[in-house]
Design brief:
Length: 156
């Protein structure tokens, strides 16, 4: 299986949002109630997606002609806006590759500290990548509970 990374394009938005919706429904089901997931997946594509992609902040992982995952950097907020992998392709290291590419992109833009809001099921993934919780407690999020995390980016 070959995974290649490329810049996310505005034409990808619908496919990215569809992948995100499936990922939330499948991956978050272990930590969130069905009504929380229903509310979360009912959201429309945020307007920020187009702006982030126009600014070159999106990266897509491709397996042949299929989008296997994506990540988005909101450089203005110094924030990881998204890291989603197709649940059918989970456990293959795609998320790890995407996050490493996003960190490299952030460093290239002079960002020295990244922030994110981690879903409860994603917290171990981000912790393994060097992110730390800003507060010991979780906080309420419209979709349920999530954790504010951050990571200082080392110079490379």
């Amino acid at each position: 299986m070959t995974i290649t990374l490329r810049a996310a394009l505005p034409d990808d938005i619908d496919a990215l949002w569809a992948l995100r919706t499936v990922a939330v429904r499948v991956s978050c089901a272990t930590h969130y109630a069905p009504e929380q997931i229903a509310a979360w997946t009912a959201w429309p594509v945020p307007a920020s997606y187009a702006a982030i992609l126009a600014a070159g902040g999106g990266i897509v992982a491709m397996q042949d002609d299929i989008i296997a995952g994506y990540t988005m950097l909101n450089a203005d907020k110094q924030e990881v806006d998204a890291v989603f992998v197709d649940p059918a392709r989970g456990g293959l290291g795609i998320g790890k590759r995407l996050l490493a590419a996003l960190e490299q992109l952030a460093r290239g833009r002079g960002i020295v500290r990244l922030h994110l809001s981690a879903s409860l099921n994603a917290e171990p993934f981000y912790r393994a990548a060097g992110f730390v919780a800003l507060r010991a407690e979780a906080y309420a999020h419209p979709s349920g509970i999530s954790l504010a995390m951050e990571k200082a980016l080392a110079d490379t």
